[in-house]
């Protein structure tokens, strides 16, 4: 995709945990919540996973803004590890009215193509549904993301409810 091509943004949702079409955990992959909040870690994860997909908007934020974002009670972060290395991560943001957004989700570059994305998304969806009184889980992705991202969201049971072009 060239810089001149319009970007399509896809908004996906899941309205019931029964919609999850899970994928089993690959051998050697462990997912843990980062229970001690540390904004510098979130910034590192954002850069590690997002660099290849042009996630740059948050990198210019000062430390105070990162800290306000990442260390809130409404944000939780999980990290996938394979043999001690960070394989990927996701952040869940609890919103008013019972919505939980998958705020960020992705794999580290060295772990793309190993079949970890399906399980990590299954884990994210299960975690979102187990957090409080969740009514809906949603995410957005776009055509700048990994070519398999939209298919992964759909394969796990999420449905597109809106598209936009920029």
UniProtKB/TrEMBL annotation:
<protein>
    <submittedName>
        <fullName>GNAT family N-acetyltransferase</fullName>
        <ecNumber>2.3.-.-</ecNumber>
    </submittedName>
</protein>
<feature type="domain" description="N-acetyltransferase">
    <location>
        <begin position="29"/>
        <end position="166"/>
    </location>
</feature>
<dbReference type="InterPro" id="IPR016181">
    <property type="entry name" value="Acyl_CoA_acyltransferase"/>
</dbReference>
<keyword id="KW-0808">Transferase</keyword>
<dbReference type="GO" id="GO:0016746">
    <property type="term" value="F:acyltransferase activity"/>
</dbReference>
<keyword id="KW-0012">Acyltransferase</keyword>
<dbReference type="InterPro" id="IPR000182">
    <property type="entry name" value="GNAT_dom"/>
</dbReference>
<dbReference type="Pfam" id="PF00583">
    <property type="entry name" value="Acetyltransf_1"/>
</dbReference>
